[in-house]
Write a structure and sequence with these properties.
The chain is α/β, with parallel strands linked by helices. It folds into two domains: about 280 residues, 3-Layer(aba) Sandwich (Rossmann fold); about 120 residues, Rossmann fold (3-Layer(aba) Sandwich), CATH 3.40.50. About 40% of the residues lie in helices and about 15% in strands. The strands form four sheets. It has a seven-stranded mixed sheet with strand order 1-4-5-15-10-11-14, sandwiched between helices. The longest helix has 20 residues. The chain is globular and about 60 Å long. It binds pyridoxal-5'-phosphate. The site of pyridoxal-5'-phosphate has 19 residues, from helix 5, helix 12 and helix 16.
């Protein structure tokens, strides 16, 4: 009998997250203020609690997970690791395909791994309300779920087009007690400014981040919470890879490829950074490769520029060194809401820059074909974001078929797609179109960035 599901017990739940900062190929370029000077920890205190800031800058390799956080994690962790025997058979590949299934969390994705930790550390420091942004609603629902457990209020700025098109995620957030505001909104001065210029603005993640930060800094005992990109978020996600390592160890396997989709980079970092560490300390029997997958509609690492840029449209966040399409990027209406972001996590970008990690882009039609194949073979409907990883895995498995090599492929199935069926409906009815973001648009955006900060050219 083939083994489909590799489970480990609660007692094997990792007790510490892995911090990649001490293991990067060069020190991470620091976040900068608009005048080019480095951000100080105190600058971040208006938006984050002290413990989160400490984690953001920590050089400790392993950071303990508090018991209160572990207790909540136990609701769905350790998550199962599946061997995709049926997908392997459908592809007639000699490769072994494994996936870590994060869709079993109550909100349906990996996002609560950090939401629970962030809500806990804020609660410990007396914060009463968290603000955040959400695109498709996955992150917002994870934070609503987490704040509810720790008795915090939560205000979520949801990109207006998703607010209108994805009522079920909004309902989920409201059910867990959060206030959900369509962004751009009248609640913030930045939102009002955007609406003054264009009342029908559909919103973007960049705008929603600006609104959420403004709300946090202008209110007492209110802080801001981010669902991706920053070091502490990626840190919390490493529980995924740490568990997967233990699960694969029971089979005496180490992946040749670790694959994940990237919006801001957190689920991919979560599954891949621990394996990068084990490879570094000599535990990999092979030349493990790490492959990040993004949409051709938001191709930050494949068409973007590695430079300092803001994380939001209103330029409220510090400048982060990353691959960016420019902070004024207006995302095309594709069906992988969580991947429509202009930048990516600075640690991941540094690893790509140093060729330690690779990246690749696919259009949404190729991605949904892979999602269709996966749903039929494995039975699970993947989130459109996660389906990007599946597309790359299918190609790697077909490559292995050509060469006859018995490669071990691991990917993060970061969420289920049961609240994304409208996208699947469009795919099935044949109306879904491929889209490539033009390079010229990136160049124009980056030129505007350099006009704003002429000193940047010498940094890039
Ligand atoms: C299911 C799922 N996967 C992936 C992502 C992309 O985010 P990240 O790159 O931070 O994992 C999102 C973001 O919303 C998501 O909801």
């Amino acid at each position: 009998m083939p083994q489909y599901k590799i489970v480990i017990g609660e007692e094997e739940l990792p007790r510490a997250w892995y911090n990649i900062l001490p293991d990067l190929p060069e020190p991470l370029p620091p976040p900068l203020r608009p005048d080019g000077s480095p951000v100080k920890p105190q600058d971040l205190e208006a938006i984050f609690p002290k413990e989160i800031i400490r984690q953001e800058m920590s050089s400790e390799r392993f950071i303990p997970i508090p018991n209160e956080v572990l207790e909540v994690y136990k609701l769905w962790r350790p998550t199962p690791l599946f061997r995709a025997h049926r997908l392997e058979r459908a592809l007639k590949t000699p490769a072994e395909i494994y996936y870590k299934y994060e869709g079993v969390s109550p909100p349906g994705s990996h996002k609560p791994n950090t939401a629970v930790a962030q809500a806990y550390f804020n609660m410990k420091e007396g914060v009463e309300r968290l603000t955040t942004e959400t695109g498709a609603g996955q992150w917002g629902s994870a934070l609503a779920f987490a704040t509810n457990f720790f008795g915090l209020n939560c205000t979520i700025y949801m990109v207006r087009v998703s607010y209108e098109q994805k009522p079920y995620r909004r309902v989920l957030m409201q059910l867990w007690g959060a206030e959900v505001v369509p962004s751009p909104s009248n609640k913030t001065s930045f939102g009002r400014k955007v609406l003054d210029q264009d009342l029908s603005n559909p919103g973007s993640l960049g705008i929603a981040i600006s609104e959420a930060i403004e709300d946090a800094v202008t209110h007492e005992r209110t802080k801001y919470s981010l669902g991706s990109v920053l070091n502490h978020v990626l840190l919390h996600q490493t529980i995924v890879g740490l568990e997967a390592y233990k699960q694969l160890e029971t089979l005496d396997r180490f992946p040749d490829y670790v694959v994940g989709c990237i919006g801001g980079g957190s689920n991919f970092a979560g599954i891949s950074y621990p394996f990068f560490y084990y490879k570094k300390v000599g535990k990999a029997p092979n030349e493990a490769r790490f492959i990040a997958v993004e949409p051709t509609a938001a191709p930050s690492t494949t068409k973007g520029v590695y430079t300092y840029d803001h994380g939001d449209t209103a330029r409220l966040t510090p400048l982060l060194k990353m691959y960016t399409l420019g902070h004024d990027f207006i995302p095309p209406p594709i069906h992988a809401g969580g991947l429509r972001y202009h930048g990516k996590a600075p640690t991941l970008c540094l690893l790509i820059k140093h060729n330690e990690f690779e990246s690749i882009a696919y259009n949404q039609l190729e991605v949904f074909k892979a999602a269709d194949l996966f749903a039929k073979a494995e039975g699970i409907v993947p989130a459109p974001e996660s389906a990007h990883a599946i597309r790359a895995v299918v190609d790697l498995a077909l490559e292995a078929k050509k060469t006859g090599e018995k490669k071990v492929i691991l990917f993060n199935l970061s969420g289920h797609g049961l609240l994304d069926l409208k996208a699947f409906d469009e795919y099935l009815s044949g109306t879904l179109k491929p889209y490539e973001y033009p390079k010229e648009e990136v160049e124009k955006s980056i030129q505007r960035l350099y006009d704003l900060y002429p000193w940047l050219k010498t940094f890039s």
